[in-house]
Amino acid sequence: MAEKQITNAIINYLKTVPDCFCWNEHGGMYGTAGIPDIICCIGGKFVAFEVKTASGKLTKLQEATIKKINEAKGKAYKVTSVLEVKIILENLKECAYER
């Protein structure tokens, strides 16, 4: 499956998640390099997903951006499927209940 297809599938799934607002951050000359593909606000929390194919690798800039988001107390992840996103969101929900 191509990266664009994975991204579209994840966006379609996220549209079904309660309290979730998300968009696909398009790259290009007007975008900011290194920003994850999908940006979300889920239950008031900032969550971002960098989408790759199973064999895809993060660039150094993407790695640095994910690190900066996490250091700022947001959540950012590299994902390769809708299933990975579902697992991440379930874990985030469980962490929220522990507080």
UniProtKB/TrEMBL annotation:
The reaction(s) this protein catalyses: Endonucleolytic cleavage at a junction such as a reciprocal single-stranded crossover between two homologous DNA duplexes (Holliday junction)
Needed cofactors: Mg(2+)
Entry annotated with the keyword Cytoplasm: no
Source organism, top-level taxon: Bacteria
GO MF annotation: an example: crossover junction DNA endonuclease activity
Source organism of this protein record: Ruminiclostridium papyrosolvens C7
Keywords: Hydrolase, Nuclease
Family annotation (InterPro entries): Hjc, Restrct_endonuc-II-like, tRNA_endonuc-like_dom_sf, VRR_NUC
Domain named VRR-NUC: residues: 1-83
Pfam families: Hjc (PF01870)
UniProt keyword Transport, yes or no: no
Record SUPFAM superfamilies: Restriction endonuclease-like
Protein name (database record): VRR-NUC domain-containing protein
